[in-house]
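Dear colleague,

Thank you for sharing your sequence with our group. We've completed the structure prediction you requested, and as agreed, I am returning the results in plain text so they can be pasted directly into your records. Please verify that the sequence below matches your submission; if there's any discrepancy, let me know and we will rerun it promptly.
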Amino acid sequence: MKQPVISRNFGAITALFVALAGNAAAVPALALEVAGVNFQSQSLVKGTKLQLNGAGVRQQAFTPLYTAGLYLEEKASTAEAVLLSKGAKQIRVVMLREVNSRDFGALLSRGLVTTSNDDQLSNLIPEIMDLGTLIAERGKLQAGDSFVIDWSATQGTTIRVNQRGSHKPAVEVFAKPDVIGALMRIWLGDNPADAELKAALLGKTV
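Please find the predicted structure tokens below.
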């Protein structure tokens, strides 16, 4: 009796599906574009591969100020999950318009005070002052300038400010583990800088 054609070709068909699946997996996920800024699907923090959790726009006085993307080891849909996670994290912020760096530093400081209580901030006063100095010394932030906040258990919190025309970024490293939580709460706390941005960073649509 002749073997059915479908049976004879089963091995070839299976191999074809495996090959197609392999090729699909080899194609990187498309970058997410937000307000003209591309956020790649993956990033690295100290050799740890992170994936884009979400990205959105920070509005100030109904005008786009910057766009931000959140990268995590494992995707999370709640702020609690992000804040409690011990895995590496990254926030990438790209300016959408010019702003005086002192004003921007004041905005970050206000975010810290609004989203953290006195007990959480009392141990971080030197770090907050250093952060303010790091931002203020940049002069003006132009559209396209960016800063990246990385956190890893071994390195602590590293902030890199990248400005167009500058040969290398300004870098500040904070060893205290509480720094990353205070910074993350600016965007993901109970009183975030922008509720719609918080939702976007958590991969939600509003």
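Summary note from our side: DSSP finds eight helices and eleven strands in the chain.

Kind regards,
the structure core
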